[in-house]
Amino acid sequence: MSSEEIDHGRRRLLLAATTVVGGIGAAYVATPFILSMDPSAKAKAAGAPVDVDVSKLRPGQMMTVEWRGKPVWVLRRTESMLNAMKERESELRDPGSDELSQQPHYAKNLHRSINPEYMIMVGICTHLGCAPTYRPEMAPADLGQDWKGGFFCPCHGSVYDLAGRVFSGVPAPSNLVVPPYHFVTGTHLLVGVDPETA
């Protein structure tokens, strides 16, 4: 065996070993980078449906849950609230909820809800994203004798009725958004899931 044959064998062995070690090193370097592209558990949970138990919600009471980083209001409306919503329809910008992007098709009705007793709404003003306040009282001094309850945005004065429908002549361009949701039972709902896909 000549010295040239031994050198070629060593070269092949060293080349193969270097290739294997380099490949393993590249895999170790690439793995954290690839894993960093996967959404975190927190990010995955942010889009997940939210369970809401409304069994302890009294008539006229409202609770707030978070879905996709947004406040979602759940209001249990009273009979008088439901009746008051009909009285001021002529003053609303979109009383028939014709702007379809503001609610799922199953909430395109007078109450903008599946069950008239419960309002489920994203609590963000459609003007500049402020948080309107819940004002259920009738005819308060600061809102006038015509006020029948609803939501008032303190940032720029936009007002919404108890179905989240915006009044004409205010800065907000559209009704409050109704998120997808469905009732699992009479007192348990899931925000973030349409009834058709449940």
Describe the structure.
This protein has helices at 3-36, 41-46, 79-87; strands at residues 50-53, 62-67, 70-76, 118-122, 133-135, 150-152, 159-160, 181-185, 188-191. The N and C termini lie far apart (76 Å). It is of the alpha+beta class. 25% of the residues lie in helices and 20% in strands. It contains three helices and nine strands; from the N terminus they run H-H-E-E-E-H-E-E-E-E-E-E. The protein is elongated, with a radius of gyration of 29 Å. The protein has a three-stranded antiparallel beta sheet, with no helix packed on it. It has a three-stranded antiparallel beta sheet with strand order 2-3-4, with no helix packed on it. It has a three-stranded antiparallel beta sheet with strand order 5-6-7, with no helix packed on it. The protein has two domains: 1-38; 45-197, 3-layer Sandwich (Rieske Iron-sulfur Protein). The longest helix is centred in the first third of the chain and has 34 residues, at 3-36.
